[in-house]
Amino acid sequence: MKRRKALKWTLIGGGIGIGTIALGGAGAFAWVYSASRIDTFGKIDFDKPLVVPPLAESVTDSSGSRVFDLEIRAGATQFKDGKATDTWGVNGDYLGPTIRVERGDEVAFAVRNSLDVATSIHWHGMHLPAVMDGGPHQMVEAGGDWAPQWMIDQPASTLWYHPHPHGETAEHVYRGLAGMIIIDDEESQALGLPQTYGVDDLPMVVQDKKFVGNNQMVEGGRFMGTQGTIGDEVMVNGTLGPYFDVTTRLVRLRLLNGSNARIYNFGFSDDRPFQLVATDGGLLPEAWETRRLPLSPGERAEIVVAFEPGDTVDLRSYPLEDAHQGPFNRFNGGDDKLDVCRFRAADSLSDDTEVPAVMSTAPDLADAEVAEERRFALSGFNQINGESMDMQRIDFGVREGTVEVWEVSNSDVYAHNFHVHDVQYQVLDVNGEEPEPHMRGWKDTIQLIPKRHYRIAMRFSEYTDPNVPYMYHCHILAHEDAGMMGQFVVLGEGEEIGQVPTVDSAHAHG
Ligand code: C2O
Ligand code: CU
Ligand code: CU
């Protein structure tokens, strides 16, 4: 385990050192610099219908749980003409089905790992017992099974699932293991928002890829890059160059940045405004109208876009100004212009949904009594507060039922982001100022702009376990794998931090 970590560290860090030596002259640097930007605006054919992942089927067992079968397996996908690409998927060749559940549902998953390596399935954004979380302590052996279950008890929102094997998350996600989770609740269903799956309510798993000659996907950063894999082709739900035929005036897009490292800045080709209606943890109190929306890896956003009959417009990713500083913005993809998906509206559009004036209530932790304040400084490629992830080390315990405020900072010149398992948090301020509107709803993952510090507040409720930790980490997957991650437990009254079960006993119930 130690050895692998060191290796990965060199892989990311090495790019910079070698690059500096090899470049030498300013002329070479200028050449590499200008060749490092990708611009596909207006250059994509958009000739493939957008694949919409199927909804996962469930059967209700005798105890009333909805049971979903999920098989993780290897396959091959025809992304391009010619040779099929080797991929991994859940119940299919690439990505997995969308799991749509309602608040109050008892859910159970029959997870089977048909790969020849161990992996896991983590439910990103879900409030659930630590032992069901699917993090690096809940590995599913090659050929093994895992049967987590819990009750869905959180507001309507868009979450996702993906593997979390320590040191290998980047590879497993990149090969195709990811899927969306949609939670509905009574309030969300009554709002009148678009909610017909695949018609006016679309999952959009956005990922960037790098292909080599035989159509195989390869990982790897750009020269001088600091973030791990930055691809040069963008796919949505596994479709390269996708179009979607719009039949309704309003369409809700559930955007998920399922990429290893790339940060997108979404907008439309004609600069039309759109409404942000939900962030990671659920609906906003009221929609926020914007023309641009940044989204870092792991984050989700629900937007509602209005179309006119006969419209053709492209969803794009525009350059980012401040994701990384200086030349790092270029080398980490921040200057790229990328066409993502075309929308082609029919000559007549049905019009029976709306964005209501009031959708939900605002996060309410700003005035809560704070039990503990903590600081998290992300630095380098693998450290939080100067330490790397250790599977056996529980970094701290929080008390069930209390609210904590964490100050999270990025001291580097390139981006990190910050994800916490089990909870949704409220961003209180950014460098002491009110957060931008897209960060004002419930969040479980936020982008960390270089040199800024973010104060976030969260309440830890309900599930306690002194031995099995939840993770917090940078969701730039190469950083996460290198060790930019820590672990905490939620403690009940009188409980003390325990001992992480050893790998063998953790596997026993797999
Ligand atoms: Cu999306 Cu700890 O993960
Ligand atoms: Cu997570
Ligand atoms: Cu990072």
Summarize the structure.
With 510 residues, the protein is mainly beta. It has helices spanning 2-23, 26-35, 169-175, 186-190, 327-331, 477-482, 503-508, and strands at 48-49, 58-60, 66-77, 85-90, 99-102, 106-113, 122-124, 145-146, 149-151, 157-162, 179-184, 201-209, 233-236, 239-240, 242-248, 250-257, 264-268, 274-279, 282-290, 293-295, 300-306, 312-317, 338-350, 370-379, 383-384, 396-399, 403-410, 416-420, 426-430, 445-448, 453-459, 470-473, 485-491. The protein binds CU-O-CU linkage and copper (II) ion (2 copies).
Describe this structure in words.
By secondary structure, this protein is mainly beta. The chain is 12% helix and 37% strand. It contains seven helices and 33 strands. It has helices at 2-23, 26-35, 169-175, 186-190, 327-331, 477-482, 503-508, and strands at 48-49, 58-60, 66-77, 85-90, 99-102, 106-113, 122-124, 145-146, 149-151, 157-162, 179-184, 201-209, 233-236, 239-240, 242-248, 250-257, 264-268, 274-279, 282-290, 293-295, 300-306, 312-317, 338-350, 370-379, 383-384, 396-399, 403-410, 416-420, 426-430, 445-448, 453-459, 470-473, 485-491. It is globular and about 65 Å long. The relative contact order is 0.15. The model is unreliable at 1-11, 13-21 and 505-510 (pLDDT under 50). Bound molecules: CU-O-CU linkage and copper (II) ion (2 copies).
Task: Report the β-strand fraction as a percent range.
Answer: 35-45%
Strand tally, please? 33
Strand order of the largest sheet: 14-13-12-16-21-18-19
Shape: globular
Low-pLDDT residue spans: 1-11, 13-21, 505-510
